[in-house]
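<discrete_fold_record>
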Amino acid sequence: AQRRTFAIGAIVVLLVVLALLPLVLGSLVTNVLDFAGIFLLMALGLNIVVGHAGLLDLGYVAFFAVGAYATAVLTSADSPLFDPQLAFWTALPFVVLAAAFAGVLVGTPVLRMRGDYLAIVTLGFGEIARILFLSDWFRPVFGGAQGITQIPNIEVGPYSLSGPTELFYPIAAFVLIAAYISWALQDSRIGRAWNAMREDEPIAEVVGINIVTAKLSAFIVGAILASFGGALFGVRIGSIFPHSFNIIVSIVVLVIIIVGGMGSIPGVVVGALVLVGIPELNREFEAYRFLLYGALLIFMMLKRPEGLLPSKRRAQELHQEEVMQDAWFEGTPGPEDRPAVEPQKES
């Protein structure tokens, strides 16, 4: 009962802080938080795929692009396919279905792949998605290099959310939903299956875990959360173009998880604020952003490979090999500790 009361109080305080935050910080900082929130949505989805299921996905930007293009095609007056001009909330279920289909489409061919091979194949899927959105073949559907413009604002009753201060609230709402989904799945049956599959896939399959279902569910959930970020990105910008969905987006989201801490929701939040929010506030260092990313990655891999705020389980896994090596060296006697071998007496 005390824990429940504390949790309810913490949620109420968090909602009040989020409601007052744009009014206190102003439009400039709120705009940066909007941008960081969109990347945080993608990072929470990739954290399920990489942090929980252990599937290294380098083409995650494809799901982000699917969400953005599905929203643009269904809501924009400039849609090249047809002219439905649906409201954002009406189009959102179709965006979720498109993202789930993309998750199955990407996850099915890589069911038996792990490690580097999985990373290379998913990288190829990400590039294929970008090229298809850019190609003249699908120009009647996705607009080609000209993209899709005139994406309408989010409407809540009589209000139209257009500026950075107003868009902060739907972005924060989607981030809270994604964080709750990630938290609820951690200790669920499928969450434990993801953890077992990440630690040792052959043993997980031997003890009865359906690897196919676990992998496909991880890709589907990750794709849906990324599509939320893509939909909000399209509304925030008002237009989408293929060059916004290159491989760098996947790399940045992966770096957020590595720096913040794989499998940790607070770690992902800190990683998004550090790697996206701070550079956006200091635009004069834009040319050195990836240099700083590289230096930070090297430092984290050498000094703190588990991340800034890692989950306990992931930290134990990363340090397990080091502990075993230290124990082996401590238990192995040195030359000075070994007993002298007495010469055998002649019979």
